[in-house]
Amino acid sequence: IFFLFSVLAYIQACRALMITSIVLGFIATVISVLGLKCTNIGFSDEDVKIKFTVTGGFLFIFGGLCSMVAVSWYAAMVTTQFFDSLYAGTKYELGDALYLGWAGSVLYMLGGILLTCSCKRKKKQDY
After folding, report:
1. Where are the transmembrane segments (predicted)?
2. 92-100 long-range contacts, Cβ below 8 Å, gap at least 24?
């Protein structure tokens, strides 16, 4: 457990952001499943289901932003250290994991946007 706290502060922050992203994704999935039209779990009112689905979509977007910030922050620090001639530690390069992180974050946010935009309320006609 000592190793967990001996890493640099930005790596700890990136870990926290990624864990937050995972937790938000899990909560968003559960909330979105409750908002599906084909499920009878919880509420059956259509307005409530739309609110659940939109909330799940926003949580997906926020989770994608958390992971995007974490991956981009780590990449910025790696790039800064790589081009710093006075940095004496191990120099890393951008690798496949960062590119997959960016792609996953974009898909995460895109899924949230599509989920949010797919919900339309039925217009009530007043006679």
Report:
1. 16-36, 57-77, 97-117
2. 98/71, 98/74
